[in-house]
Amino acid sequence: MQFAQMPMFYMLWVVLGFVIFLFWTFTRKRKIMQRFAARDLIPEIAATFHQRNSILKNVFLAVVLLFSTLALARPQWGFEWQEVKRKGLDILVVIDTSKSMLTEDVKPNRLERTKLAVKDLVKKLKGDRIALVAFSGSAFLVCPLTVDYNGFLLALEDLSTNTIPRGGTNLSSALKEAIKGYDTTTPSQYKAVIMMTDGEDWEGNPLAVAKEASSKGIKIFTIGIGTKEGDLIRVPNEQGQLEFLKDDQGNFVKSRLNENLLQEIAQATGGVYVRASGLQFGLDIIYDEHLSKMERRDIESKMEKKYHEKFQIPLGIALVILLFETWITTRKKM
Fold it and tell me: Residue 68: which domain range?
């Protein structure tokens, strides 16, 4: 035998508390009665009160709580083998880790806000495989396609602007790495790329790579992070203190959102572009309105034990005892 909801046994503390409360109430009433009258006169004063039945009713209530707790813990014994099929998409998350992602026009900054949004996305996944690509001047597959969401989240948490040694922003390299991250045997209708960046591209031809992805049936969804007005970039110096980033000429670097490029990349593949804001990042829109409606394939089929639920037994016992408790009266028949 096993229990499917072991945490429900913490309710036993409630049962214990209830028993202690009943005992305290009983002794308190008896002390009050002894103050009111002598002990040998109490049976005559309360001649119609059945004290033993009163105690029995309280015991029954405690037992009802005990068996109700057992029912909530869902006892199970006996099982049968059942085939379980897991369906899902292959979602490849591409995150910009260039220094411009430290801009604070999105709080706390663009990169940290992106990581928080991806964590919320993972909570919605049920069987989908997910992978992670980080990019700046080059791209790297940080986590391959997996259903180990905890492992994916660990890789996500480690992302920083130091993940990719080469500086800059290369969307082409990121998209190429994303395409390479897919299993060639997986049909294209089950593939989706989500790219999160401020869209500042300094090298390569991302539109050409997007068209290549489109020819393979891969949809690319883009999320623009930041504001059109942009903001200065604060980076840690050698002493760990934050200071504004400057270019080779000593001018302050200001990062702005490049929406046009991201819109073109998404349109070229049949995906959509969403601009992230403080309240609505956009990942939930992409998943709820697009990814959740895409066709899913059988990724895995395996046999699992399905245990037989037996919570009905302690629940039935609790109900029978409760009926007995209501039937018992504390009034003596004269």
Answer: 2-74+311-327
